[in-house]
Amino acid sequence: MSSRAFLRTSDGVAIDAVYEPGAAVYDTSGTPSAHPVFVVAHGFTGAVDRPHVRRIAAAFARHGGVVTFSFRGHGMSGGHSTVGDREVLDLTAAVAWARSHGHARVVTVGFSMGGSVVLRHAALHPRQTDAVVSVSSPARWYYRGTAPMRRLHWLVTRPEGRVVGRYGFRTRIHHRDWNPVPLSPVEAVRRIAPTPLLIVHGDADGYFPVDHPRMLAAAAGDQGELWLEAGMGHAEHAAGDELLARIGAWGVGRAG
């Protein structure tokens, strides 16, 4: 049965989350344990009720249970966004909630900012997830090489940008700089093995060019798999139904 709850992170932030049993409802044993649960980590300015997040949840529900949630500072969740730093605590709470529904296997799938979060979560909490999919993630912090990323840095670092974030994108952004700077995605990838890792990136991504996924794949070595998708843009909005179906099948096959 579907359910919605506010989860409490280890630092006390309330996180809005939704669970859907999806394909697990058809388990003849009457429990979802035979099916994995996909925990979806959205991109910056996303939220659990956004149409693109609900579309992704519906696609993964064909392969197992699904947990979606709003990162801190997004949607109805509490707190302020730290743009990928303390969001690892939000994902940790969502994964624990997913397992509480009886799923023995967890696949974390993140997009853009969420893609960096699933990498850091797997590196810092290696026994909490059984397979990791990172879509459209940066490889390194502070990248400003494209116009969209320069606009994003203005949104995050400038007081007037944070006002636009709050009222224009319904995203509350923390005013403090990172201290200390969190483990970078490429550094995190080196720590994920032996957990299976899939890196997905579009060759038409306007935020992070293809040197980012190639750097991540090189750091992963034989333990990682790279899908460089022809004509694909950035993150959730660019992920078509066929790609989501392939990711779902990969997760079922690799999560053990």
Automatic annotation (TrEMBL):
**Which molecular-function annotations from GO does this UniProt entry contain?**
carboxylic ester hydrolase activity
Annotated AB hydrolase-1 domain ranges read 36-138
SUPFAM superfamilies per record:
alpha/beta-Hydrolases (SSF53474)
**InterPro entries found in the cross-reference section:** AB_hydrolase_1 (IPR000073), AB_hydrolase_fold (IPR029058), FrsA_esterase (IPR050261)
Q: Which UniProt keywords apply?
A: Hydrolase
A single Pfam family it belongs to is Abhydrolase_1
Question: What PANTHER family does the entry give?
Answer: DIENELACTONE HYDROLASE DOMAIN-CONTAINING PROTEIN-RELATED, POLYKETIDE TRANSFERASE AF380
Q: Which family does this protein fall into?
A: Belongs to the AB hydrolase superfamily. FUS2 hydrolase family.
Q: What name does UniProt use for this protein? A: Pimeloyl-ACP methyl ester carboxylesterase
